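Incident review: delayed structure delivery

Summary: a single-chain prediction request sat in the queue longer than the usual turnaround. Root cause was a stuck worker, restarted by the on-call engineer. No data loss occurred. The affected request and its eventual output are reproduced below so the record is complete for anyone auditing the incident later.

Affected input:
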Amino acid sequence: QVQLVESGGGLVQAGGSLSLSCAASGRTFSTYTMGWFRQAPGKEREFVAAISPSGINLYYADSVKGRFTISRDNAKNTVYLQMNSLKPEDTAVYYCSASGRRFDGASSYRRNQNYGYWGQGTQVTVSS
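Output delivered after worker restart:
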């Protein structure tokens, strides 16, 4: 079992930055693929970014590529999402997720069905 707790959300003006953190419980954090997803009101949950257990392989949604950076610190059982140049359309609840499965191809990292553990979410609001 893995428990995930996000922090760092808030209100920021367009063009600003926020950093999200996700602390995970358990001693096997370094074996999990970690992902960030987001869900805006009235929309489906969508993929934002993912990072492989070693931290070597990174995946991003096209909408955030070049603006967001995912990273992890396995010694601290924590995954991060640095968000720069924020836009109003980035407004959403951001969820941290974890998966112990083996992924097959880049597209598999983008499917929320492949992640078995989820945090409670943290609100990010970007004002124009």
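Verification: The chain has a mean pLDDT of 96.
Action items: add queue-age alerting; document worker restart procedure.
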